[in-house]
Amino acid sequence: YAGRQELPENLKINFRTVAMMVPDRQIIIRVKLASCGFLENILLARKFYTLYKLCEEQLTKQVHYDFGLRNILSCLRTLGAAKRTSPGDTESTIVMRVLRDMNLSKLVDEDEPLFLSLINDLFPGITLDKAGYPELEKAIADQVETAGLINHPAWKLKLVQLFETQRVRHGMMALGPTGAGKTTCIHTLMKAMTDCGEPHREMRMNPKAITAPQMFGRLDVATNDWTDGIFSTLWRRTHRAKKGEHIWLVLDGPVDAIWIENLNSVLDDNKTLTLANGDRIPMATNCKIIFEPDNIDNASPATVSRNGMVFMSSSVLEWKPILQAWLRTRNPSEAATIESIFDGSFAQLYRFAIQNLVFKMKVLECMIISQCCKLLQGLIPKREEKDTSPVPVEHLEKLYTFTLMWSIGAMLELDDRIKMAEWIKNNPDITMNLPDIPEDSEATIFDYCVDNDGNWQHWERRVEEYHYPADSTPEYGSILVPNVDNVRTDFLIHTIAKQTKGVLLIGEQGTAKTVMIKGYMSKYDPDFHLSKSLNFSSATTPMLFQRSIESYVDKRMGSTYGPPAGKKMTVFVDDINMPIINEWGDQITNEIVRQLMETKGFYNLDKPGDFTNIADVQFCAAMIQPGGGRNDIPNRLKRQFTIFNCSLPSNPSIDKIFGVIGTGHFCEKRLFPADVRAMVAKIVPVTRRIWQLTKIKMLPTPAKFHYVFNLRDLSRIWEGMLKVLSEECDSVQYLLSLWEHECVRVIADRFTNSEDKDWFFKAIIRVVGENLGAEYLEELDPEPYFVDFLRDAPEPTGEEPEDADLEAPKIYEKIPSFQVLSERLQMFMASYNDTVRGAHMGLVFFKDAMTHLVKISRVIRTPRGNSLLVGVGGSGKQSLTRLASFIAGYKIFQITLTRSYNQSNLMDDLKYLYRVAGGEGNGITFIFTDNEIKDEAFLEYLNNVLSSGEVSNLFARDELDEITQELIPIMKKEFPRRPPTQDNLYAYFISRARDNLHVVLCFSPVGEKFRNRSLKFPGLISGCTMDWFLGWPKDALVAVADSFLASYEMVCSAEVKQQVVETMGIFHDKVAEACVKYFDRYRRQTHVTPKSYLSFIDGYKSIYSEKYAHIGELSRRMNTGLEKLIEAGESVAELSQELAVKEKDLAVASAKADKVLAEVTVSAQAAEKVKNEVQKVKDAAQVIVDGIAVEKSFAEEKLEAAKPALAEAEAALQTIKAADIGTVRKLAKPPHLIMRIMDCALLLFRRRLDPVTQDPDRPCPKPSWSESLKLMSAGGFLSMLQNFPKDTITEEMVELMQPYLSMEDYSLENAKKVCGNVAGLLAWTCAMAVFYGINKEVLPLKANLAIQEAHLAKAMDQLNKAQAQLDAKQAELDEVQAKFDAAMKEKQDLLDDAEACKKKMDAASALIGGLAGEKTRWTQQSKEFKAQIERLVGDSLLCTAFLSYSGPFNQEFRTYLLKDVWEKELTVRRIPFTKDLNITSELVDQPTVG
After folding, report:
1. Judging by DSSP bridges, how do beta strands 502-507 and 617-624 pair with one another?
2. How buried is 713 (Cβ within 10 angstroms: 0-12 exposed, 13-18 middle, 19+ buried)?
3. Which of 193-207, 402-416, 576-590 has the lowest mean pLDDT?
4. Burial grade of 1159 (CB within 10 A; 0-12, 13-18, 19 or more)
5. CA distances from 892 to 836, 880, 885, 887, 996 (A)
6. Closest Cα to residue 358, out of 427, 413, 285, 286?
7. Less crowded by CB within 10 Å, the N or C end of the chain?
């Protein structure tokens, strides 16, 4: 059963299954009784067993009844205790009393007498006294008094029963309908028990306002982290309670099998809470767990048997005690009067209402009476402190009548209210103070109210006049024309809301519920009282609601939160009944709403177990009447509200509202002609008639669920009418065209077929004829269309003021003709393609496309205009929207879907949209298609955008501050009187965003999704103007095909091409008809869409091109073969002639070659002779050359050794300057070493020396200094040194120098010391001596070289002469050889040519011989290909149609389409095609199939 799952087979197989028998309970009872000391245990056991058996059989079957073993055991436990406490009573009396007291508490009203008679029959003759608890009863009485309640006996009995139950059970259930006093019962009992010395306190939570993981805790699979839940945290806290304190855990919410099954181990004898992380927490000894549901339809028997039940039926607490409790708060004389008035008629009227009238919402008696009390509380005038005089009785009687009208009567529709008024008036048994209504008036008592002086007053007296401004156009959404309905509702809302209580308005769509509540909230002074509104949809979760409320409040102190700056706040919840009802029948989102209203707070989701108190927040709500697939809200939430049913305004009210607006706009001051002004007043009721007729005729069905026509539609018609200016609207005819256009746009654009549209046009004609007169029928345009983009921008002349507007003026006017419109749109499309990067829009503007563009343009040009476009794929919804947005000058936005796109991405995109629309103030169109609904929760956000324009928690605080700061100057400019507070700026931001953000939803009507979404998210329909795209008409299909194929090359006549274009459209239409037949026959839904048509055209082009290319290629190959055959025949004849000529040429060339050969032989011999002689001379010269080379290299090697010494000498010489020599010359007595160096120089230069005499100072000859001076004086001494001819040094010179060189002070170091810079001379002299030592070996070699080189010159001379002779001979030889080669080549070429010619001739002959038979076949085939290309036009059409359309159909329908529909059509239109075409072989070849 629910909450339990079947074990998987592979687990089940591991256990041995044992069936448990139902035990013999009688034996168990007897054993237990005996153990408690009962002597008559056998008889008593039988009576006990029989009673329970009878109860199971005879009593009604209630979910919460349990007469099983657990109940028996708890009774037996109590019996033991009872025997010990009252030993004086007989055993039968004890058993009878315990059985009665333990079971009576859970019985429903009708079972109680039966049970009592059963127990009396089993124990005859015993009369029981009531078990008394005097101390407790006194405590209860005191607590009831303190709380200002009534000590109602039946209810007090339930308190005692609950007390008895809690003594024997640790798990209890206080069960019963809302308003039966369950909560108060628990609270009062706990306080009374506290007074009796056992302190009790409760921890209360609603398990359905949170998810199961938030309740019990969740284990993070990835990290294995455990987060405690709210219940598990509270459970742990019970262990930390003070000693002696009792804690009751109250689970106050609907029971479903899942969460309560998780508590099985807590409720049975284990008394242990087991958590997913493996924790097992035992129940604290002083803890009890109590459930407080209003039904337990979903509870399993396991749960029921584990709980002690106390059933509180609504009869326990009827209306009287509730009224009396409230009257205790009034002064006694007033209270007595009111009570007597109620006693007089309330019960009869209430009984009449529930028996004869239809309540639009199911409500219980307790809700009606508490609504009466709330109304009286708000209505009875407050007296001054000193004024103690009571309110006059008459005044109270009138207020009582008024209260009944708006408590019992508040739930009724108009016709039932009239019945109720009649019944009150005509019933003789009751007397009520009613207003005096004139006989002829249509008014009922509901049209009257009681003024402060206690007099009846018609509501109309309270309605203020509304004056439409003649000089400015107010924002349409802000116009509120007061009438009886909204003044009355406003008064009722105020009566309740001023007591900070909740108000709920119910009513059909368009009964201005939202407008009235928002209108009421707009009267608050924002410095003291704030207002917020949010919309519920089927995707609203408790978490979303809690986060929204948390975003509205700031921390005050501790865990108390409230609206900012200590203000109060009213939160308006629209569509409160929309959240989804889960499989257990609970509306969990409304559970948290109830929890917040009842306990003034909710549990913190971030810190489990901490309760957040919310102060100074009250609620208003609105919803559509339940029923007809629309949810109701839980009863326990209903009772938190005072409920009023809003009926549609009466016809005069509707006419008044739109009359004021219409005549206000079309006024004299705006220069409208008189006849136009007169006509506007007549049109007002006519528009209403049309709307009402449509409403009656066009009822919603499952296929046309969106045929819901409410006052919003009427208001949209007038909104469109107010766009026009007097310059255009200068005649009645123009006005009627405009009126017709707006009616059709708002009402007929949503129709899903042309029959409905035709009906609507006829209805307009009929109503105009009846109400305005037949003469106006001629003035009705069959199809008027109005747009605001026909004007061009003014040409800038350069003389405009700075702030001149150079945009094209947006003037709403009628289109002159579709031709003009089409040209204009073509211009815009070209401009769009130029402006938007990557845009290649190529729309075909057939009539339907233009009209849809006009419709979209009209909606998005209206402030807050949102559109819902419904049409199958490819109808052009998105393209037309893009173009319309471009024309309007808006940005275009569409979400980019990625694999990971989720709600937070959508939130970021919405932020961008709001920033552009609200922050920058630019128009932006948000295109949203059903392919982008990755998650249904996306629609929740869109629903809010469309309904209230606000998405809660969209912006973080800091982001909002940033946006609103930027808006301060802009708001100052627009509303100079409005103070720039945070709330005003935010409201301005949201209203600006709503004006500029245009949501265009592009949905497909195929399948159930569209319908389900629209019902779950009512804003999608109510917040949008709908445009239903019907299938493209035939002219559209043809126009599109024509535009695609116009420039496409096809091999056929122009006439056939035109037929192909038209056939395409017909094919598409025929398939659409076949879809309907297919559905009728097989109940399988298939669709053809414009997208499939476009792919049909594209497919046609690609298949035609492919087949054309393929057949063309085959044809080309065939023709090439034929050409080659003809060519071969001609070639053979030519070649045989060529061959004869070539053979003659060959003979001549042969003779010529032989002649040249003889000449070559002679020349070759002569040249050979000369060549041998030259070779000998060459060899002799070579020997000499080789010898010279060896010697030369040896000499060079020797000289190489002397090079370093020479280089050193040269370097030394470089150091000597001419000035240094001059200095030496001037020395009178030069150092001895210098003189010696100069002697060596003299020797080398072969100059004269003095005769040798021994030097007196040194062991050497005396230096010849005078000669030395001469040498130095000679010009260019330095250059002589540098250019000294080294080869002239002789052995003698060196020998003479030897004594000088060998002296020990003849060294470079000494020289540097003695003679400074002339030291280089010393180094030079030494080097010369060393050089000679080497050079003396080289000199003979050099001499020999010179002789050898002379010989070589001679030999070379001879060689050159011989070589010249040889070259001359060789040249002669080459010349003759070349002649020979040429002659031979010519001969060879002729041979080759003749051979090739012969081969060619043989090949051609073979080819002609081989293919003689093929020639005929190829010629035939070539003609066939040509015919095939002509038939390709029709063949491709059949193939493409087959590919594009026949997929969804079965074989039978495919054949039917191909043979009976398409081929037949081609035959009729004379389009060539192949008879019995095999589509498969046409589209794929055999190898591909293989």
Report:
1. parallel
2. buried
3. 576-590
4. middle
5. 11, 12, 7, 11, 12
6. 413
7. C
Q: How far apart are CA 89 and CA 676, in angstroms?
A: 98
27: tokens are 């034996």
- pLDDT, position 114: 94
Nearest-5° Cα angle at 754, 753 to 755:
95
Q: What is the pLDDT of residue 1065?
A: 87
Per-residue model confidence as pLDDT tens digits over 344-401: 889 999 999 999 999 999 999 999 999 999 999 999 988 766 666 788 899 999 999 9
DSSP H or E stretch at residue 373: helix 365-379
Please calculate the CA angle 301-306-309 and round it to the nearest 5 degrees.
Answer: 90
Q: Which long-range contacts (CB under 8 A, 24 or more apart) does 140-146 make?
A: 140/188, 140/189, 140/192, 142/192, 142/195, 143/188, 143/191, 143/192, 143/195, 144/188
Burial of 346 (0-12, 13-18, 19+ CB in 10 A): buried
Q: What single letter denotes the amino acid at residue 1403? A: A
pLDDT band at 229 (very low <50, low <70, confident <90, very high): very high
1042-1095 pLDDT tens trace: 888 888 888 788 888 888 888 888 888 888 888 889 889 888 888 888 888 888
1292 Cα distance to chain centroid: 118
Q: In what helix (H) or strand (E) does residue 1343 lie, and over which residues does it extend?
A: helix 1319-1410
**Strand 272-274, strand 280-282: pairing:** antiparallel
Of the candidates 60, 49, 154, 160, the residue with the CA atom closest to the CA atom of residue 107 = 60
**pLDDT band of 440, cuts 50, 70, 90:** confident
Q: Are 691 and 747 in contact (CB under 8 A)?
A: yes
Residue with tokens 């409403």: 695
Q: Which pair of tokens denotes residue 1295?
A: 């020998």
Distances (CA, A) of 1313 to 552, 1230, 1324: 111, 14, 17
pLDDT 10s digits, 1124-1182: 777 777 777 777 777 777 777 777 777 777 777 777 777 777 777 777 777 777 777 77
pLDDT of residue 310: 94
Q: Tokens for 50?
A: 């029989």
Termini Cα distance of the chain: 56
Using the predicted structure, report yes or no on whether residue 898 has a pLDDT greater than 70: yes
User: Which H or E element spans position 1369?
Assistant: helix 1319-1410
Tell me the C-alpha to C-alpha distance, in Å, between residue 1070 and each of 204, 1349, 1460.
Answer: 67, 117, 11
Place of tokens 């003009």: 820
Task: Return the residue matching tokens 């706040």.
Answer: 569
Which of 11, 33, 185 minimizes the C-alpha distance to 105? 185
573 strand-pairing partners: 534, 621
**Residue 800 predicted with pLDDT over 70:** no
For 621-640, the DSSP string reads: EEEEPSBTTBPP--HHHHTT
Q: In this predicted model, what pLDDT tens digit does every residue of 1206-1258 receive, in sequence order?
A: 777 777 777 777 777 777 777 777 888 888 888 888 888 888 888 888 887 77
The more confidently predicted of residues 1155 and 462 is 462
Collapsed DSSP state (helix, strand, coil) of residue 786: strand
State whether residue 147 is helix, strand or coil: coil
| Number of other CB atoms surrounding residue 1031 within 10 Å | 21
Note whether 1304 and 1158 are within 8 A (CB). no
CA dihedral 777, 780, 781, 786 (to 10 degrees): -170
> What are phi and psi for residue 710, nearest 5 degrees?
-130, -175
66 DSSP 8-state letter: -
- What sign has the CA pseudo-torsion 643, 646, 647, 652? positive
State the Cα–Cα distance between residues 1068 and 1031, nearest whole angstrom.
10
